[in-house]
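assembly run, all chains below
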Amino acid sequence: MVLSATDRELIAVIQDGLPLVAHPYAAIGAQLGLSEAAVIKRLEMLQSAGLIKRMGVVVKHRALGYRANAMVVWDIPDAEVERIGALLADEVCVTLCYQRPRRLPAWPYNLFCMIHGRERDSVLRRLEQIVSCHGLEKIPHTVLFSGRGFKQRGARYVETGNISGHLQRLHG
Amino acid sequence: MDSVDATLVNCLQDGLPVCSRPYDDIAASLELSVDELLSRIQHLLDDKVLTRFGPMFNAENLGGALSLCAMQVPLERYDEVADLVNAFPEVAHNYERDHLLNMWFVIATERPEQAGAVLGEIEQATGCRVYDMPKQEEFYIGLKLAV
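ok done. output:
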């Protein structure tokens, strides 16, 4: 999909957040000289083209008391990644699940998932359950808990008319 | 943050409809007026429980590129290197993690071909090798985080 100038203006206005008023799309339209219906129609097109995933929120897990933020990484035979990735993604406590390239010899792991919990112990117990429930005992894996978080900035997609993609979630 | 806020956060994670009055259904399900709902959302933003409220973009579909990167940073240089890395505008998140590879950050560039140059600049600035691990596949997460 090729973005029109109007789409870019719309993304520029909406990227900092949806206005907190009863008719947010009318408010956005007023800024751009568009009708509410035209704004809604453009946004529906951006959604169906996959440029906008949804109108939603990014939650800061730490602020909700989820202080244990574990990146669990697995070294899975390539032929098995699809199956096991889907299994892990289905677990309630898993919030992200990605296949990534190994960087041998420093880094042998090819599947990454995030597990958030209130405490480290509960995350580790949950991980044990997942391993035994799915018979993953022979799959090498390790847990990297997070320490300090240095930078968590809001995403900016359009600056001076250029599209720049910045991620939403921890591991985009 | 009370139980209404917790339910609200969960509802918002499901996403809002794109329609004339997108807040009405959630307000009704929480037995709040739209004004009360909006004021609660504003508080959650002010309190930084929500760091974003609005469109969730797909960076790759917008033409950009993302990669998760890791470095092995000597402990005595950790803060200095963190400052150097965070100074790059392309670096979005940066977390300390307990592993030999102990600094994990995400870089986002407007176009995929810019990523390599940024990685090179980070290596040059820090003297540390950057391992980049762009995603190859994303597995669908069906269920949200329980609040």
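Residues 3-46 of chain B form one domain.

Helices of chain B lie at 3-14, 24-29, 34-46, 78-86, 115-126.

not gonna interpret more than that til we talk
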